[in-house]
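Entry type: protein chain
Record version: 2
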Amino acid sequence: MSIFLTRIAFFFCLCFSLQAFSQDSISKTSTDSLFASAKDSLVVKEGNGFLSDLKNNDFPRLEELIRKGKTYSLLANQIRMELEDTMDTIRLSEEIPEMETTLEALDERIKTPNTQFNFRYIFALDKILVSIQEKNEELDKIAQGKLDRLQRLDSLLKTIKSDKFFLFKIRDSTLLPSYAEEIQNLKFNIHALDSALYRQELIAARFQARLSKVTITL
């Protein structure tokens, strides 16, 4: 009889322990869920519009925003440093007009009536034209190389700008002031890089257009 009572007592103790453990697990899960929800609610949309149909699971996590902010800030700095390696515009500005002037003078000389062309003159003319062609090809490589690098940087910058990362923000910037400042600087830098890329592409393209005209004249 005593053994039977002991077993009943043990059974009730076991049930009570399991119930307490279950309630504790549920409580812990609820707490973790509330913590995660509170943490993720820090991320909100940048304004309204088409983002209104986004579900909660479409929102990036706070850690993801911080990580991408750091990554894109570093990439923006790399782009800026590469843009500081400018093309030798002084050389191009000096040597292209020299070639253009020489070719114009030769063209006028050839068109002049009664111009005498002896073997020595033709040999000298050919030497000048070969020199201009070699210089033109060398300068064109400089301009094309710069354009290729700028296009690569422009593609990288477009990839950064198209990321949905910029569609979200932290609800209260005072909670993470350093992050808010970093993102503000990143947006400013991206705008500045966009302008710098456009200016340098325009300059390189203009030089290349003049070099192409020299090639056609040759």
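Comment: The chain is about 80% helix and 5% strand.
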